[in-house]
Amino acid sequence: MFKDEEQTCITCPSTWQKSRSLKSRLTQTSALLTNDVAAQSYDVCTSAVQTDSIVPNKEKDHSSDDIAAFLKSVEGMVLKNLEENTNSKAFKGMENVLGMHSSSVNNNMTLNHAPLEFGMSVQDLSWNANGSVIGVAYGEHNHEDWCTHKGMFCTWNIDRGKINVNKADQALDVSSCLMCIKYHPILPNLCAGGAFNGQIIIWDLSRTEDIEVCLSKNVEDGHHEPVTKLCWQATSKDNILISLGMDGKILRWEVKLSRYQDPELTLLQGFAITGSGIPRDHPAAPSSRTGDIGGTAISFSHEDDTVFVVGTESGLVLKCTTLSTELPLDKGVKIQFRSPITLVYNAHNGPVYDVDFSPAHRNLFLTASTDGTIRLYSTLQPKPFQVLEPVSGYVFGVQWSPARPLVFAATTALGSLLIYDLKKSRVGPVLQIPVNQTKSPVYSVAFNPKSDTLVTGDSKGTVKVWKLSQGLSSQIRGESKLLERIAASSYE
User: Fold this and answer.
1) What backbone phi and psi angles, to 5 degrees, belong to 70?
2) pLDDT band for position 18 (50/70/90)?
3) How far is Cα 121 from Cα 139, in angstroms, rounded to an integer?
4) Residue 479: in which H helix or E strand, if any?
5) Is 58 exposed, middle or buried, given 0-12, 13-18 or 19+ CB atoms closer than 10 A?
6) Neighbours of 227 (CB within 10 A)
7) Alpha helices (H) in 243-295, listed in sequence order
8) Rounded distance, CA 169 to CA 111, Å?
């Protein structure tokens, strides 16, 4: 039934894989042909020339009388050219490259207003927006009672070719001592002033008549004690003026400008520095919780215009805000007053005469006090991370340089101008300059925001303009990073 069967092998050739075939071929290029050719340059020919024989000139003898006569004949022309070169502004702002890293300050100009009453001091200084005009506030520095003097506001245009150093370009009387002034940061002809009687004045210096265009007279919630400092907060739409007074008030005014009408001054908002804003356990806390604390200095942050620092008559240093949500204080007639205080720093041992926020760092500010110290604070720490004691005696003014982040200037009761450069020294000033020979107190200092000059004013009513070397007025590479490191050291 079943049997074995064998079949032949069946193969299926591949339809896709084919056997490879290889072939070899040889190629040869043509033989390379070479050819050598020699070349020879042209023949060289040398020739010589000879100039005419040199005849030595015999120098003519000149007598001393001849030389004197010649010098006399050109004296007028030489003096005229020297004077023109001295007054020339062709090289203004330029320095010798060899001295670009030197630190020096030279007195360029000394200004006095001869008609000024005896005893009037320079209370404040301010440059206009162009940096060409310096404004000076004159008044008595010490008052034992209510002010019975008249103050004065004077201006000098230092960019003029010919300037009368003994008489101001403009001199405007004020009903009482003028304690502070501040030019508008955009409009070069608009300036505000604060008087001892609490009044705010605004001048339009572009006018020839009726220069005083605003006066805060009979404002119920206004200042009733001396106005100590003024600050502008100006934009393209709004012009806000901040005033600080010895009555502890910080007032925000709106200055309405119109092309066809005089400016209007309207009180918008008020803050009050009282004992209730100081923690009870603070070493410098006042005994009265409701008493006013006189404000002597104010400075706003350059990066956040709602944050500011206030120095006080009692030595307190306070961080404040315009966005205060504190309960209204029991004062004010038409507006509500609130406490602006958000942080209380370690206090000075005497009145704080000046404070200034760094234009190059949002958290750093300087203070100057009658306790003889300059302090460097961070807004984030109550304790100053650097205390400088430059001289024995009061320190009245202090201001950062607008050009160099590590440079600032200070003035003292012993008549000195101090220049600090934190890149070179964090201990003492790099320059200590006597402003006057009598060691009279120097109350104010102001850097020019548009050039390499600063100005000082003293108790004798004298204003001096100083020129800074390029080493003090031109920013140095890596300076901002060094300032950051200094600021960071405050947290250690």
Assistant:
1) -65, -45
2) low
3) 5
4) helix 479-488
5) exposed
6) 29
7) none
8) 11
Exposed/middle/buried for residue 438 (C-beta within 10 Å: 0-12, 13-18, 19+): exposed
Radius of gyration of the chain (CA): 38
Distance of alpha carbon 201 from alpha carbon 152, whole angstroms:
12
Phi, psi values for residue 300, rounded to 5°: -100, 150
Q: CA–CA separation, 113 vs 109, rounded Å?
A: 13
What is the distance between the alpha carbons of residues 412 and 392, in angstroms, rounded to a whole number? 9
**Cα angle 106-111-113, degrees, rounded to a multiple of 5:** 170
Helix (H) or strand (E) run with residue 412 in it: strand 407-412
If DSSP codes are grouped into helix, strand and coil, which group holds residue 323?
coil
Query: Quick one: pLDDT band at residue 237, thresholds 50, 70, 90?
Result: confident
Taking the C-alpha atoms of residue 310 and residue 106, their distance in angstroms, rounded to an integer, is 32
- pLDDT higher than threshold 50 for residue 99: no
Number of C-beta neighbours around residue 280 at 10 A: 8
Residues 356-390: pLDDT tens digits? 999 999 999 999 999 999 999 999 999 999 999 98
Grouping H, G, I as helix, E, B as strand and the rest as coil, residue 322 is coil
Residue, of 47 and 204, whose pLDDT is higher: 204
| 8 Å CB contact between 328 and 361 | no
H or E stretch at 447: strand 442-447
Residue 204 pLDDT: 94
Give residues with Cβ within 8 angstroms of 306, minimum separation 6. Answer: 321, 322, 323
Residues 6+ apart with CB under 8 A from 36: none
> In the numeric block, which tokens belong to residue 417?
């101008």
Return d(Cα 459, Cα 480) in angstroms, integer: 36
